[in-house]
Design brief:
By secondary structure, this protein is mainly beta. It has three helices and 26 strands. Helices cover 4% and strands 60% of the residues. The longest helix has 8 residues. The relative contact order is 0.19.
């Protein structure tokens, strides 16, 4: 069956949020669907996550209140069909991150004044050039510019208490690093079929960091000694497989499978490593899948529903993100006031996987029966 061009174009667009709370630090899913849109196209979107992650200490008789902060991330993209055979694209997203804040009242993760907290931010700018030797094929590649910054505080008996670690803080300066992307897509426009395989390389970061050592109590008060170090981190390589096909005149089925190489991923700043601890550590690769259908009800309205699954990146997990994967269900709607632009909105519920949090190989917390809500909005324009 042949879909009308507008119907196909509408339903090609994914919901305005993707993984949102995936394995490891994964957030955006690093989609390049905007680059595979026909003709000239631009979009901008925002996603908001509201998680609820609670647990029980394994080293002290206490409950752990909600430690997962709300957060948002944005994305934008522009694609230009420069010639019949050459296309250019630029995609901005925030692919990895973490936001957590434990209560200062927790003896496991706090010291009655400050609670363990983490804020990790990344920015990603992907430049793409595509070559279309025929109507059906698209081969693309390009460079990737990426930054990572972090502000982390560790407190409480989960990290060995004052005798082992004391209070520990680290700030990692934002510094750029580079990687690359390559892939290909195959399409049959007559039946709205499109499949794409995209590989992203790892990106190696060597960032200046400021580690705050154990405080020393003197007659002058508390003195913190700060040491400038270099923290090494490698954001992982990944592969995305995207597929869609027309089912009826106004209905599409679509799927995405993503692999992220988190296996043996470790971040160990020099001072923290000297105390026998890692800042972040994962031991398994992440697999995720999203499968759904979209339907066009009229020239102005369409909707979609998606079921998602994420494997997580191993269990036990880091205390800075104590969940292991999820199942999810999402609903989205799209309104097109005119043929050349649209507005999307969606909501997703995530059932987060149970996990055991550990430090230095010692289990310190159980986190079970947790969930999250995600909300997203996106605007797309064809020119």
């Amino acid at each position: 069956m042949q879909l009308k061009p507008l119907s196909s174009a509408l339903l090609l667009c994914s919901l305005p949020f993707s993984t949102a709370f995936a394995g490891g630090l994964d957030r955006s899913g690093q989609s390049i669907q905007a680059f595979l849109q026909p003709a000239n196209y631009a979009e901008a979107g925002i996603s908001i996550l509201d998680p609820d992650v609670k647990g029980t200490s394994k080293i002290l008789p206490e409950k752990i209140s909600d430690m997962a902060d709300d957060y948002y991330f944005v994305n934008a993209a522009v694609k230009v069909q420069a010639t019949d055979k050459v296309s250019l694209g630029l995609i901005y997203d925030q692919p990895y991150g973490a936001d957590a804040q434990y209560s200062s009242a927790s003896n496991t993760f706090g010291d009655q004044k400050v609670g363990t907290s983490v804020e990790v931010k990344t920015q990603n700018l992907t430049a793409l050039i595509g070559y279309q030797p025929t109507e059906n094929w698209n081969i693309y590649a390009g460079p990737v510019w990426q930054t990572v910054e972090a502000d982390i505080k560790l407190r409480g008996f989960a990290y060995g208490g004052k005798e082992k670690l004391g209070t520990y803080e680290i700030k990692v300066d934002e510094e750029p690093a580079f990687g690359w992307i390559a892939g290909f897509a195959y399409s049959i426009p007559e039946i709205a079929l499109k499949t794409a395989v995209t590989y992203r390389s790892e990106v190696k970061h060597n960032a200046k960091s400021h580690e705050v050592l154990n405080p020393v109590i003197t007659g002058l008060g508390t003195l913190n000694f700060t040491e400038e170090t270099t923290t090494q981190a490698v954001t992982p390589q990944s592969v995305n497989l995207d597929f869609q096909t027309g089912v009826t005149q106004n209905t599409l089925a679509f799927a995405n499978v993503r692999w992220v190489h988190w296996d043996q991923f470790t971040v160990s700043p020099p001072f923290l490593k000297s105390k026998g601890q890692d800042l972040i550590s994962y031991d398994k690769d992440q697999w995720s899948a999203n499968v759904g259908v979209g339907h066009k009800f009229s020239d102005k309205w369409s909707a979609s529903t998606t079921v998602g699954w994420d494997s997580g990146a191993g269990n036990p997990v880091t205390t800075l993100g104590p969940t292991e994967g999820y199942w999810s269900l999402s609903l989205g709607a799209q309104y097109s006031p005119a043929a050349n632009y649209f507005i999307q909105a969606g909501v997703k519920h995530l059932w987060l996987g149970d996990a055991v949090a550990q430090t230095s190989g010692i289990p310190v917390g159980d986190f079970t029966d947790n969930n999250a809500w995600a909300y997203g909005m996106k605007i797309g324009y064809r020119f």
